Amino acid sequence: MACGIHITDEERALATAYQRGHRAGYESGLASARGSSELTIEHLRRRVEELEKRLDDATRTYEIAGDQVVTVDGYAYRWRGATPLEVGDRVLVPENWLSALKNGPGPREGTVTALGTTYRGDLQHIVRKLTN
């Protein structure tokens, strides 16, 4: 084609059509890549969740020396009560340095959020179960 000044209307239309087609193809490629990336991200997210669950199941402890192990508001505790605790039960847990800073001295109320734990350290004992 000639320069932009000396081209015919037919050549100008052809150049415009070429640019439009190129732009449409480029945008289509971007959309396709974006969709593919989103699918890959979602697949990886599900895979990570599955692997985390498998690891959790393999390492979760439900009992230590005859005491039931539960998670109360994100922290693990031991329970020696006669009846096992269930998710949703309200309990009184002992004071720790963080609860003392947040709520003042003394035990605090909490809710059993999970049975068992993957934590591998020393655990405090729940003071008592509260009536729901």
List the helices and strands and how they pair.
Layout: H1 9-59, E1 63-64, E2 67-72, E3 75-79, E4 90-93, H2 97-103, E5 108-115, E6 124-125, E7 128-129
Parallel strand pairs: 3-6
Antiparallel strand pairs: 1-2, 2-3, 2-5, 4-5, 4-7
Keywords: Coiled coil
Coiled coil: 34-68
Please describe what this structure looks like:
Keywords: Coiled coil. The protein is an alpha+beta fold and 132 residues long. It folds into two domains: 59 residues; 67 residues, no CATH class. 44% of the residues lie in helices and 22% in strands. Strands 1, 2, 3, 4, 5, 6 and 7 form a seven-stranded mixed beta sheet that branches. A hairpin with a 2-residue loop joins strand 2 and strand 3. The mean pLDDT is 92.
Short description:
Keywords: Coiled coil. By secondary structure, this protein is of the alpha+beta class. It is built from two helices and seven strands; from the N terminus they run αββββαβββ.
